[in-house]
Protein 1
Amino acid sequence: MANVISDETIEYVGILAKLELSEAEKERAKKDMGEMLDYIDKLNELDTSEVEPMSHVFPVNNVFREDEVTNGDGREKTLANAPARKEDTFEVPKTIV
Amino acid sequence: MSLLNLTAVELGKKIKASEVSVTEAAMAAFEEIEKKEEKVNSFVTVEKEKALKRAEEVQKGIADGIYTGPLAGVPVAVKDNMCTEGTLTTCSSKILSNFVPTYSSEAVLNLLDAGAVIVGKTNMDEFAMGSTTETSYYGATKNPWNTEHVPGGSSGGSCAAVAAEECFYALGSDTGGSIRQPSSFCGVTGLKPTYGTVSRYGLIAYGSSLDQIGPVAKDVTDCATILEIIASYDKKDSTSVKREDYDFTSALTDDVKGLKIGIPRDYFGEGLDAEVKEKVLAAAKVLEDKGAAVEEFDLSLVEYAIPAYYVIACAEASSNLARFDGVKYGYRTEDYQGLHNMYKKSRSEGFGAEVKRRIMLGSFVLSSGYYDAYYLKALRTKALIKQAFDKAFEKYDVILGPAAPTTAPKLGESLDDPIQMYLGDIYTISANLAGLPGISVPCGLDKNGLPVGLQLIGNCFEEKKIIRAAYAYEQTREFTHSPLTE
């Protein structure tokens, strides 16, 4: 395997991804990511030095529209999905210590 | 009288002619669901009471001239990644196990405007990440042709439900083949439209630059009819395209004279099952005998599509799935210390293994120091793949090949080796990268009695050419129902 993923990399990517992996999951992730990157390295066979990255297949620009309210008050329905609510707000753990 | 053998369009005609009531049509679907769900598991949610109430409304709407379209009153199933107001929408994930959307996706609204009766939400690979429908938190869906085999994925539930006649048609979504590959495995017809044709508003995003909603049905006529209903320009989707043509059913003509069909040699090499190859080439011969000009050519770059796809799709997924944090909706872990621990634990407990694998890979390829080497490299490769198709479509109207290299594998054989599973999408993925429309049409059975799918790919906005070729091919084929429907 050409790509060896270190413990540090998995820790770092876990922070970016906001995932807390178990020790077994970390080992598996190291192996899977290494294998996938080996496979993805196949792209290096292609000379793309003269090619622009294509994010969209059609030539589209940013699409703007007026910020007009078209729906009604959906507060109750929206809050009904909240894992925890406090009156008319979403309840979360303390964020400012 | 059994309604079950009818296509969606045929049933719609009978409803319009008052030969069948909307309630009778819905009940026919629910009887099948009650008989078969235990074996097939196509659905995450079935809403009988709501659907029967809706059936009465639609019946009245037809009488009042509100619903005049060809599919008014016909029961439909919707993949569980499309938001449905007031109905549980899980994406087959634990993290959305309690999510009831406050609005419906645009494609679903278009269906409802056409008088559709939604019978339920279909099972899928979690967040549409998978090729077998085995990564669902709600258990695997089974292939109605042989329940020891997978239905394909990620729209496996939609395709199995149509094959098992638990509904008359369904909506799926296709990011790397998720409509066409399971349609192939389940012996149904599935179409992925040109990117931007069907609004993605309310479709829970996986890879936004690749995702596209499309129809799954019993035949090509149904697919064209459904596409006419769900396709629309939508201001709420910034990548929605205002098309010049929406009259897809006008292409349902049994005439391929002069149509130029290219067969990429690269689609018939190593890894392709011999029986699949034989059936697909036999279908090409049918079209040639009907007057199409068929020739082989080299498409090139085929082996680079999958690695480019996984970089792009996982990168987009890692960003799209950042919204699932246990704050405003969805699963929240029970024990936590502080906000960040709550995020991490909710996500780690809420997502399955394949989803975590892709979020990790996506986060890595977007991270500082790797972005150019992986993400931009993949976007440059995508540009080259698009160029290869542009070149091919200068010569050909339609590209013909298999939808998948094999027929449906057995349950439990795919997930241990992700790369091997990803290789199963080799013929479908490049159409997503290049934004092209593609259709999978059943073209025979292998020696084990499992369906083979013929794929036809068109240039952007040229759905009509693939519909025309698929329809012409279909006229020579007897429709074969899956054994569970007998």
Note: Chain A touches chain B through 53 residues (CB under 8 Å).
Protein 2
Amino acid sequence: MKNEQELIEQCKKQNSKAQKILYDRYAGLFLGICMRYVYERSEAEDILQEGFLKIFTKIKEFEGRGSFEGWMKRVIVNTAITHYHKNLKHNKYHYDIGDVQETKFENETYKDSEFTGDELLKVINSLPEGYKMIFNLYAIEGYKHKEISALLKIDINTSKSQYSRAKKLIRKKLGQLKREAKKEKDTKSA
Amino acid sequence: MEKEFKNIEDLFKSKFEDYQVQPSDKLWNNIDSKLKIRRFLNSGLSKLFGLSVTVAIITLAIINFKSNDIVNNVSEQKNDKKSILTKDISAQNNKNKDIGNQSSNAPFVDQALLKLDKAGHKNEAEREKEFAPIIISKSIKQIENSDAQIQDEQINLAVPSPPVPVFSLDAKDGCAPFTVKIKNLSKAAFTYEWDFGDGNQSNDFMPQHTYRYPGIYRISLKAKGIGGTAVSYIDSVIVHEQANADIQWPYENELLTGQKIQIPNYSKNIAKVEWNFGDEHFSHDKNGQHIFKQKGEYTICMKIWSENGCVDSAVINNIKVVDINEKIVFPNAFTPNMDGPVSGYYNPADVYNDVFYPKYKGEIEEYELRIFSKFGVEVFKSNDVSYGWNGYYHNRLMPEDVYVYIVHGKFEGNQKFSFKGDVTLLHKNK
């Protein structure tokens, strides 16, 4: 069952072994996605579990058009969005979303080696909940603002403006990270 | 080659394209066992099982409610039903051997439907169309498709164990509004009915609930599984009354340095109080008492704990404390009129500086100014801030010298002041 097509077929038949293989192949990657939406690991694993259950029950609906991995990712992301709405309902998130002060960033570039994935994960998770959702969906998942506004049940302009504020916040935080790294380097060399 | 990005989108996309976090080991087991239960619930076997139960219920209903003239008939049905159930179970047990053998299943289904027919008033043609082919073909199809391992699981589950409702709470007591998070550890169950003991229910797998009012509550969980229904509960979830910090700021104006302030505390059932006056001074008295020594702007914060450890706090912001000389100030010299005493009732608009009096802000309610010569003679006294010293004592001009004054009084809002200073009396050149 090495080949993906065969694996999908077997999973459609609810073959337990095939399901395990699929899980092993993607669980790490998908938990990486979930962690961008909820930083607490046990919560992220809840989403992952729910997501995989959806994948296995809805796999019959996958028609083979487009990438299978992309389809699964969408299921996982949708599960995370459902989770977000649930928490909103429970008033779990109390974030003041005020205006973010604009700082000047002239020709700032970011090197891949400057940041680790874990650092960027923390940056994302330090954002107010609403910003985080929009940034994840737009910048990383590549959804359009129109889709995001439908998924999060917000106005399209809200999505756009919050996205630009999220970006400003992130730039600021990346700048801080850079400075901290530089400081550390300096003290080490000194 | 080093990747460099101008857009943060590109940075994040590249970083998270392949970002992985390893899930904990038990996660797959959770998913797997849920999948197994779903598989079982969706399988033809469970439908068959469900049908036979339905038949039994319907038959029992007939026994209980049909009129006397068909009692004999019914008792026959009852016997039939027993045999059906026996057949049903034997059919299940024999499935491994009897895969796809339609004739072994058919009589059972047929008879079962006969009973349904009597109860549900359906004609034979209709019921054949509706039920028989679907059930038989589905059960066979299921058996053909599944591999041996899954069948074993199904057979095991077919002798269902009763559900075990078990749950734990993240905390058993707290302050209103108290949110309790429930961890569901139940086994062999697939629907859950929670009762939070305050009139609220939930069917979530792992609900959380917020108690608004103080009290003692019982959370009970009714879990339903294939093996039946079971209930468990946790007693005495205690929701304490929230502490309620209630203080009143009695001052309308800015404070003076050195002024003793008292803030009454009306909070109820307090076990512990902490005042933080914002100038690194703390107190644990019920009422806030403090003297600010430095001028500035302060925030006073009071925190209270109830006996049950519930916390509340109150904050007074923007307390302005000024020095007394910002409110009342005396000149350090004055020049009396050389040609005879002028009235002590001065005109603040005058520029002659021939009366010694203070400049002040606000309303002065009490006032006493006394001035002494260096020999200790009281040369002037006034209880009226609008009446100053003209430099004369018993109608005689006092010599050029330094005189000491003592003043005390009270601004409105009980701002008392009391200080002394000196003033130089100068004679104007003629």
Note: Residues 184 and 206 of chain B are 6 Å apart (CA to CA).
